[in-house]
Amino acid sequence: MMYYTGIDIGSTAAKIAVLDETGAAIDRFVIPTGWSSRMAAKHIAELLENKGIYVQDTEEHEKNTLVVSTGYGREAVEFADKQVTEITCHAKGAQLLFQKEKAVSVIDVGGQDTKVILVENGLVSDFLMNDKCAAGTGKFIEVMANRLNVDIEEMFELAKAGEPIPISALCTVFAESEVISYIAEGRSREDIASGVIASVANKVATMCKRQRLAEKIVLTGGLSSNSYFAALLSDRLGQPVENSSEGRYAGALGAAMTAKKLGERRSRQRAQVQ
Amino acid sequence: MQKLPDNFETYDEARQRGFLALKELKDKGQRVVGIFCSYVPTELIYAAGAIPVGLCANSEEPIPAGETRLPRNLCPLIKASYGFALTEKCPYFYFSDLVVGETTCDGKKKMFELMNEIKETFVMSLPNSREPREAAVAAWRSEIIRLKEKLEDFYHITITEDQIREAIRLKNRERVAFQTYLELGKLDPPALSGYEMGTKTDASAFTFDINDRIRSFEERTREVLHYWETERKGKTSDRPRIMVTGCPNGGVRDKLLKTIEELGGDIVLIDTCGGIRTQMQKVEETGDVYTALAEKYIDITCSVMSPNAPRFEMMGKLMDEFQVDGVVEVILQACHTFNVEAYNVKRYVTEQKGVPYLGLETDYSQADKGQIATRLGAFLEMLS
Ligand code: SF4
Ligand code: SF4
Fold first, then answer.
1. Is A100-243 in CATH node 3.30.420.40?
2. Cβ pair A126:B377 closer than 8 A
3. Looking at CB atoms within 10 Å, which of A3, B29, B106, B258 has the fewest?
4. What is the mean pLDDT of residues A225-232?
């Protein structure tokens, strides 16, 4: 049995998806990236091995998977057969998750950066990535959540219960001091959290509007199962934004699909040589 | 990736070599005029018996010094150029007798006021529009005459029309050599690297004898053609053919141009003011010299001009001739004219030409190296 494994190492979480020879997704899991992508990659290899998937030849076992790595830590996966950018992988993965659509716009709010990708007929036709700053990314939410002494999930729970107060600074550092002064003024955590999430949604929506959008818009990546955030985006874009529980695996699935393609190409080439 | 020639000289090496050569020339009494922009007609500088040296800085090093007086949120080219002037770390600035500036973008023209405190900076007033044409040409012509008079005054010389005409002929010959070299980018499959083209064009400024420059371009052109004929012709390449446009990209050559080629693209065309588009149009060799110069230079298709339709016409034509598969636009941080115009460039490239486009806003730092590589990687994956 040959497997095709996609490993998407983001700045906070590493996502893994495995396809079998027929292209069916037979496994997927997520682990925290931790402080070192390299350690995470090693850990992933061990976890896969426990499942009977061997990324490298060892004395006891033959390598039985092709591996494509993607994401911010893709270069740390030394045993990968190929590295592909997360943009291509998210596009491919979204195509798999939303098979019926001819065109989809993919919004991925990642820990480190945010991307908006237009996929037409399975191919990336345009994409935007946010600039050097953290505004509009998961990092921004994380920093503010730390300030409010809650984790990300609690942050969203608070936000749902609050009325957004404006966070006008675009730079994380300045926004943080804005938040600090709101705390000092005694504003409720709910309202502050609400303001933070709203500011991220605004920033992401502005980015979306700089691009031609497909009728179908989907949320992938870490916030993909967050229906509250999807609703905020829908509101700002005036168009439904779908969320899904599988969306966070879009990058890993796309990488696994690329691995499968790579396998097919290799066996074709082998056949030609013979 | 296309091979670099065995005797390839990096930009820094050329710059180094230039120092010594320029020092020797200066010791012999050579006149030197510093310039910042392609709009300045160097013919007049040659006619004054001086050599023009480009002072646009490509390095990150002088930026902190520049930021002691300039806002941080300013184009890195301006901050670096001023930083060099302030710290006297750039021998080319140091050796310049006079600096010629121009009213192109706001950041640069205001910076010249400060630069003038360090070294005399003569600022030419460039119209911001080519329309109505007669008025624009007349205005630029009178500025060109003002530059001539300034040079006469400054060096206590008289510049004759014959001298100007001679310089026009010489520069035209150089343009042909330059253009022929850059047209090698049309070869399919490609036979030279875009990184080389960019480096060689920018570094040629450090060869001060115009005839040496012409010879060097002609030689390399012959070499590449020979290589193509014997080793590349008839082969196929699946590497996408990339055009780079936008701001001057010397300061991000390694971060961007090199990365594109390392990641699997071939840069066949660099459509910036240092590239082919300023070489294509020659200066009329007969008739009134000042009008001839004004007409050529006012037609440079930089984003500082409004409206700027000729840029798009030229771009479209070049994209066809060079069979471009993808366009990467480089915007230096806080360059408003190129940044605003980028919207139209994207629209033109994707809608009119049906070619994918990627815009990148960056500065001279290495901080966004990874993000830039990811975007370029994704863009190239999208093209293949
Ligand atoms: S980009 Fe425009 S303003 Fe800048 S040097 Fe070139 S022609 Fe001059
Ligand atoms: S790149 Fe833009 S902002 Fe910088 S000097 Fe040139 S025109 Fe001005």
1. yes
2. no
3. B29
4. 93
